Amino acid sequence: MNDTDRNLVEIKVLSRRFDSTEALCGVDLCVPPGCVYGLVGANGAGKTTLLKHVMGLYQAKEGSVRVFGLDPVRDPVAVLSRIGYLSEERDLPDWMRIDELMRYVSAYFPDWDQAYADELCATFGLDTKKTVKNLSRGMRAQVALIVAVAHRPDLLVLDEPSTGLDAIVRRDILGEIVRAVAEEGRSVLFSSHLLDEVELMSDVIAMIHEGKIIQQGDLDDIKAQHHFVKVQFTEEQEHAPAIPGALSLEGSGRSWTVLCNGAYSEMKKIITDLGGAILEERSASLEEIFVARAGRRSLSMEDK
Question: Distances in Å between the alpha carbon of 211 and those of 17, 34, 214, 269?
Fold first, then answer.
């Protein structure tokens, strides 16, 4: 079986505790080839812990992790030689110039594409004679991203890739790089707490909350299954109306907003039976779905 026939990443029933903190709980996740897979969750949800298991930085104590069919802890060379990794910390040697760093990293990767690295440096406007310590936070992130992608990895793993990048780079450059990797038949697994970024770039998503996957699947399918509705009732509602399939229900008096999952026709009929009129209906955004499933408060949590 080759990589075109199997998932590049397969995680089964993965759990992880740090002292009394449960960072991951029974996580199942598969990344197919040629896919941009977005892992979305608030800071502190367990995203980085999950990615560190994929990189072999943590060994699975409960459950299993396979990358290219291999255990990344037991076969680190075979696995890591085919992965491009961008950590949230952007760890780079401060004393090296950018061109020196590129030459150093290229020695570890036979498929290093210097022309591609040079093209990205030019796109970002980087002076390759500058030392890392003299780079701004954004420039450091750009260099780290180039190091991660220039050897054309089969799997690109990005942990909060937009940290330190301005809006233009985040929207145009990062999106183009991630999409180019996927279109070449490679895969991308990236985490972000920026839901608009995940919605823009992902084919498949997994929502993680307090270490658990609370929703995953094809992004278009997930959005098609969730509907946002504004309702006005003929009479004031003293309590939230009982509407089947409602994940969230907010409002007061005659005006309410509903986010529902499936059973859309049934929900519309019940609203009508309750004396309600639908003023607006549309597919829900990824942020609205996440907030409904995980809670608004989770968006301000800090990373574990």
Answer: 10, 26, 9, 37
